[in-house]
Amino acid sequence: MISIPLIYIEVFFLMLTSFLIGYFFAFFYQKSKYLRKVNKLQRLINLDKTEDDFAQAPSSEEDHFEKFRKVAKLKNLGKSKKNHVKEKTVSVVNDGELDFERIGTADETDADNLQKIIGIGPFTEEKLNNIGIYTFEQISKFNSNDIEIVTELIQFFPDRIINDHWVSKAKMLAENKRRTFKEPIRMKKA
């Protein structure tokens, strides 16, 4: 008869238990994420089906433009995200777009080396640039909604932006950049 030490049996059951816990947490997390996306798509489809919004005459040109933009967004939902990502319109954060009025706009001429922030590599920096994020100042103004939107747009790991402390590091780097440009270099007299 084979004799297995008790410690091996205990370790096996502890590992099996931890595997099962991890598996079920991951399963329910992915399921809830999937259900949120399905609910969002259903709401967008219901928005498209309701003719009530368009039966009423818009009160102003801005209202008409906003309704037209929502319908156009629904039509482009199934198309590639690249066009959606390049779009730098200012809109409500809940629509899945960044609020560039709050975080600021920049272009390639203003670009900082975002790779100085731990967790941002060349590929991630390119994706951030594609959605209009070029500077430390912009990242330093992110709130929780912006982080969620950016995570979806660049298809990054969930909570990676928070865990790598992008916002606080960007604040430090932006402050160092401001200080460097404000203070002239002074030479000591001999």
Description:
The chain has 190 residues and is mainly alpha-helical. It is 62% helix and 0% strand. It has helices at 6-49, 52-55, 61-75, 81-86, 100-103, 122-130, 136-140, 144-153, 160-163, 166-182. It is flat and about 85 Å long. The protein starts with 5 loop residues before the first helix and ends in an 8-residue tail after the last helix.
Key phrases:
190 residues, mainly alpha, flat
Write the topology of this structure.
Blueprint: H1 6-49, H2 52-55, H3 61-75, H4 81-86, H5 100-103, H6 122-130, H7 136-140, H8 144-153, H9 160-163, H10 166-182
| Poorly predicted runs | 77-94
General form:
flat
Distance between the termini: 88 Å
Radius of gyration: 24 Å
Counting DSSP E segments of at least 2 residues, the number of strands comes to 0
Largest sheet: none
Class of secondary structure makeup: mainly alpha
Overall residue-averaged pLDDT value: 76
Helix content: 55-70%
Order of helices and strands: HHHHHHHHHH
Number of helices in the DSSP assignment: 10
Proportion in β-strands = under 5%
